[in-house]
Write a structure and sequence with these properties.
The structure is a homotrimer of 323-residue chains. The first copy, chain A, is α/β, with parallel strands linked by helices. Chain A has 2 domains: 140 residues, Aspartate/ornithine carbamoyltransferase (Rossmann fold, 3-Layer(aba) Sandwich); 155 residues, Aspartate/ornithine carbamoyltransferase (Rossmann fold). Chain A contains 14 helices and 9 strands. In chain A, strand 6, helix 9 and strand 7 form a beta-alpha-beta unit. In chain A, helix 5 crosses helix 6 and helix 7 packs across helix 8. The two termini of chain A are 24 Å apart. The mean pLDDT of chain A is 93. Chains in contact: A-B, A-C, B-C. Chains A and B meet through helix 3 and helix 13 of A and strand 2, helix 4 and helix 5 of B. Chains A, B, C: Pathway: Pyrimidine metabolism; UMP biosynthesis via de novo pathway; (S)-dihydroorotate from bicarbonate: step 2/3. Chains A, B, C: Pfam families: OTCace, OTCace_N. Chains A, B, C: GO terms for molecular function: amino acid binding; aspartate carbamoyltransferase activity. Chains A, B, C: Belongs to the aspartate/ornithine carbamoyltransferase superfamily. ATCase family.
Chain lengths: 323, 323, 323
Amino acid sequence: MVGKSVVTLDDLTTSQIVDLLHKAQYIETHRHEVAHTCDGRVLATLFYEPSTRTRLSFETAMLRLGGHVIGFAGAQLSSVTKGESIADTVKTVSNLVDVIAMRHPKEGAALVAARAAKDFGIPVINAGDGGHMHPTQTLADLATITSRYGRITGLTIGLCGDLTFGRTVHSLVETLCRFGNVNFVLISPDELKMPRYVIDRIKRAPSCTYTEVRDLAGVIGDLDVLYMTRVQKERFFNEDDYLRLRDTYILDEAKLQLAKPDMAVLHPLPRVNEISVDVDHDPRAAYFEQVHNGMLMRMALESSVVGDTLPGYEEWKNEEVHA
Amino acid sequence: MVGKSVVTLDDLTTSQIVDLLHKAQYIETHRHEVAHTCDGRVLATLFYEPSTRTRLSFETAMLRLGGHVIGFAGAQLSSVTKGESIADTVKTVSNLVDVIAMRHPKEGAALVAARAAKDFGIPVINAGDGGHMHPTQTLADLATITSRYGRITGLTIGLCGDLTFGRTVHSLVETLCRFGNVNFVLISPDELKMPRYVIDRIKRAPSCTYTEVRDLAGVIGDLDVLYMTRVQKERFFNEDDYLRLRDTYILDEAKLQLAKPDMAVLHPLPRVNEISVDVDHDPRAAYFEQVHNGMLMRMALESSVVGDTLPGYEEWKNEEVHA
Amino acid sequence: MVGKSVVTLDDLTTSQIVDLLHKAQYIETHRHEVAHTCDGRVLATLFYEPSTRTRLSFETAMLRLGGHVIGFAGAQLSSVTKGESIADTVKTVSNLVDVIAMRHPKEGAALVAARAAKDFGIPVINAGDGGHMHPTQTLADLATITSRYGRITGLTIGLCGDLTFGRTVHSLVETLCRFGNVNFVLISPDELKMPRYVIDRIKRAPSCTYTEVRDLAGVIGDLDVLYMTRVQKERFFNEDDYLRLRDTYILDEAKLQLAKPDMAVLHPLPRVNEISVDVDHDPRAAYFEQVHNGMLMRMALESSVVGDTLPGYEEWKNEEVHA
C-alpha cells in the first residue's frame, strides 16, 4: 500500500482491509512497540471545511506513531484559496510532507488531490469530500464490529434512521457486501428508505439478505449490531410527520431492554437526540469506542501508505491470526 | 493525582500544591531529564473561546515533556458546536487523548467536562471558564513568589487596582489563606474594593492580616510582592472618576523608587498601561517570568495528572527539599 | 549565528548565506542524521495575517529537526491583539519558546519583535512584514539555483513580469548583487519596470550586467534561470492594456521550446495563470522544488539561530565543500 491514495474504499482490496483491521488490533495491544513507527514523518491535514472530530483523529493517529502534523482547518485557509487551485496547493504541500489527509466540501476534490500528489509520490487520504463520505469512517465502523465480535461477517446488522441521505450507512453496507454473509435489517420511515442502488448491491452480494421495516422495537431483539443515524427534521415534508416518526427512531434504555445482552450500538457521531444519554453507560453502547477504533484504523492506514512497518506486527500476525 | 481533574484549586490539597511547586523547581533545573516524561502522551486543548497566551502555555508544557498536542482554538470549533453537547465532545476527545485542557466562556463548563471525561479515566484541567478564573494562573503566581523568595508565606503581599472584579486576585488570596501567615495590603479605589467574602476568608485564615488603602505610593515601601491588575475604564460611573484615579494605580519607575530593592512585581498579563514599559528592565519586574513559571507549573500538573513520574524528581526532593 | 534575529537578509553576511546553502545541501542528503538536531526546542509561529504556505514551511522545518511548534494563524489571534502591543506578546512568547517566526501586515513589525525578544535572548525570523518581503523566500530562491547549477554566480538570470511591485525579485537581485558576477535580463512591460534603486544596485555590483526588454520569447534562449512573477490586473490603467500584455508574460510549453534544455523556471507561488500547467511536467520546472528548498533553508536557519549543530555537518563540509 506504499504511496497509495485512498479516495474511496474501492481503492483498497478486501485483503488490504482485513490487514488494516489486524493492524488496528495489534496497535491497540502494542502501544509502546509502535510509538516510533513514523518517526520523522509529517502528515498534512488540509481541511477546507471544519470537521474537528475527523481532523483530531487523523492528527492523533500520526502523533501516536511518532510522526508530526501540520495543516489548516477551515478558518485559516484564506491564503490558500487566494487564487490557487487545489492541485497547486497539494503539489506545494507534497514538497513538505509524507502524507496528506484532505477534507473538502466538493465531491471529487480528493481525487484531484490524489492525482496532483502522485507526481511527487505522496499518498492522499480522503477525510470527506461532498456528501461527507469518507472511507476512514467505514474503517472505524468495521473495526468496532470486529472488536466486539471478532469478525464482520455472519452477523445480523440493523441500520436505523435516515437511510436515504446517510452516506455513512451506504458506504458501510457496500463494504460489508464485499465480504458477504451479512443479514441486513433496514429500519426507517418510508420517506427515508435505503436507495435502490444499495439494495441492488445487497442482492448481488454473496450470502447476504435484507429486510426493510418501519419499527425499531419490533426487530431490535434480532440484532447483533444496531447502527443508529440521525433523522434530520429538514428531510420531512411537514413538522407533524417529523414529530410522529421521531420517537420511533430514538434509542433509549426502554427499547434497549428488548435487545440481546451483547448487541453493539454504533453511531457515526455527533448525535443529537437519537440516542438517549442514559444509554451511554450501557455496556452495549459502542459509539465512543468507535472514536477510539477510528484512530487505530487511521494509525494502521497512515503507517501503511507512508510505507512504515509496525515493529513486531508480522510476527504477531503469523502467531495470532494465522494460527 | 493520577486521573485527577482540576476544575478549581480546591481540587488540590495544600500538600499537592506544594509538591507541584517543588516539581516546577525541579523541571526548571532539569530540562534534559524531564524531556521525555510524557513520551507518547497527547494533550487536547479544547478552547471554546480564544485565549492564545493560556493555550500556548499549556501546549508548550506538554511538548517540553515529550508529549503531543491536538485541539481547536475558537475560530475552528464550528463543527464541534454543531448540535453537540460539551459532554459528548469531551467523551469523544477522551477516546483520543490522555489529558484535556478546556477553556469555555460559561461558568461550570469545566465541571461538566470533568464529569464526562471521568467515564474514560481522562483528567480535565480548567483553563478558564466564565469570569476567566483558572487555577493554573494562580499556580503560576505561587511559583513566581516561590522563585523570588523561596516561600509563599511570611510575606507582605500588595494587591493593587481592580480588586472587585479581578478573579485572579481572589483566587490568589484564597489559596494563600490556605497556607496562612500572609500580610495582605489591599490597594484600590473605593469603587473597586475587595469583596466581603474574600475579606472574610482572610479573617478566618491562620496568622493572616490585611489593610485596605487607597494609595499605592504610600504603602509600596512595605511590600515584598506587588500584584498589579488592570483598572478597566468601564468599571467607573464617569470618565472624570476614571481619569482622576487611573494614575494612582499605574506603576512606573518613579513609584518603584519607593519600593524595597527585592520587591517582586507580578501581573497576570496582558497589561495595558497599568505598568509603564520603563519598568520592564527593572530587576523587580517579575511578570514575564510569571509566564515562564506558568509553563513550568503546567508541566508539573500535566505530568502529574497523566501519571508520569519526572525522572530523578523523588531523589532530588529527598535531598534538596527535605534536607 | 546563535540568538541572531533575521529581519532582512542584510542581517546575514554573505559567508553566513553560503554556509546556510551548504547546510541545506547537507540536510537534503542526511535526513536521518539531522532528525534530532533540535530535540526539545520549540518554535512559535506568530502569524498576524494568514500565509499558510509560509507557515507550513517554517513548521515542517522545525518538526523535521525534532523540535516542536506552537503558534497562531490569523483567525485565532483575537485574544493576542486584545489591547496588547506586539512587544508584549513577543516578550510573553519569548518566555515559552526558543525561536519565533513572525508574519505581520505592517512594515517594521519584525524589527520591533526582534528587539523585544532580544531581552530574553530569543531570535526572531521575519516571515514577511508589509509588502510581503521575507528573507527566507530569497534563501529558497538561492537554494534552488544552487541545487540546479551548483552555484549562484556566473549565470544569466531572467526576471519576468511585474518587476515594479514584486518585492521578491528586488530582494533576490539585491542579494545576488552582494555575490556579483550575474547577468540580469529584466523582462517587463514599460508600466512594470524594475525600480531605479534596484538598477542602481546592479550597477554598483562587481561584474554584474543587465538588459531591460519587453518580450520574453526574444530572450528566453539566453537564460540559465527564468524567474516568473505574477502580473496583477489591478496594476494596469485599463483592461485593454492588461489583456494586450498578459500573454507576453505567460510561460507555456510553446515558449519553453525556445529555452535551453537545462534552464530552471522559478516562481515564488502561488501562480495564477502566468505559468501554464502543461509546464509542470517539464524537467525545467523548478517552482515546486523551490518549496522543498525553502523548507531545507528554514531548517538550516532555525537550527543555526537556536544554536544547535547539525550532527556530521562540519566533517562533511570539510570533505565535500572545501575539498
